[in-house]
């Protein structure tokens, strides 16, 4: 197959189509993992709710109780976290669809550029969501004595633990998306440079 | 020049060197702006401090006063904001140095790949820092009644305003860095594809 390509350079790759297919597969696996992690982060955070009954006072021997709920909707950073991760999960699903349908669709060189740029935008959004949630979670866990904001994780422990799990999912998801985007950038160059046997020194300096 | 290049394709660009130089200049200008914005965000946040004296009680006619300071170091999200923006400012400065020294250094095709990947990582970090700071600032401004965290911006208004200005600088900086990285990605493809007159349909699908 490789020698066939060498005779007809218009058809496609002439170098290492096996390597290209292998990288393709690795990217698809990473993409599936990133999709699952961001979906997991979305669902765990969106379904995170803890209701607890506290004894606020005792009148004689009758305890006076109050029921409080901790929900993700109460914290704007967690709402952004859910939106950002849901968006990233949808993005990863769509990009998987593009990758699998790619050979059938005539994309005319549009996808190799649009996919990493969309990845980049999604990395920025999910990174923002995860980071905001992490610092809000840290505030919930430790409080801030300077601002007189008391910790709440001593009262809503399982709420905080589930939130923390969602944040870890999201952070690993961001890391995978950064790797996917970086590999995409390297592949664009390697594909065109390798295909045409360009010397490696180049004047493309962004 | 353009026709000369056509005869000797090994030398360099054969297509639109003027366009390439123009895009180069635009990227450099955007890079300088991104550097200034992230530097501004770093300095404004790092120097942000407000000291205020409150009357906490009155004994007879003698007021009892307490002096409180609001500093960025008191909030972990703001510390991360300063580190992230300082890092991005340094990155942009180094990338400017690479861009200006690029023609003299023999970078052997390394820079065109490393620069957008480093840009990507920095976009993720600054986006995280800016987003965490924005949500912490929103908490300071509005408080959170569910967690019983009171707003503090009514007491430290100029501290909050300066912090907000730093956040706007940082957010515009991230936006510019996303544009720079996206343009870099498109340029890698256009450079190699244009140089070798490749047909636009390709099978590089990340």
Characterization of this structure:
2 copies of one chain form a homodimer. Helix content of chain A is about 65%, strand content about 10%. Chain A has helices spanning about 1-5, 15-45, 75-100, 110-140, 155-195, and strands at about 50-60, 60-70. With about 210 residues, chain A is mainly α. In chain A, strands 1-2 form a two-stranded antiparallel ribbon. Mean pLDDT of chain A is about 80; it is low at about 1-15 and about 195-205. Chain A contains 5 helices and 2 strands; from the N terminus they run ααββααα. The first copy, chain A, has one domain (about 15-195). Chains A and B meet through helix 2, helix 3, helix 4 and helix 5 of A and helix 2, helix 3, helix 4 and helix 5 of B.
Q: Which secondary structure elements does this structure contain, and how are they paired or packed?
A:
2 copies of one chain form a homodimer.
Chain A: H1 2-7, H2 17-46, E1 49-59, E2 62-71, H3 76-101, H4 111-142, H5 157-195
Antiparallel strand pairs in A: 1-2
Helix pairs in contact in A: 2-3, 2-5, 3-4, 4-5
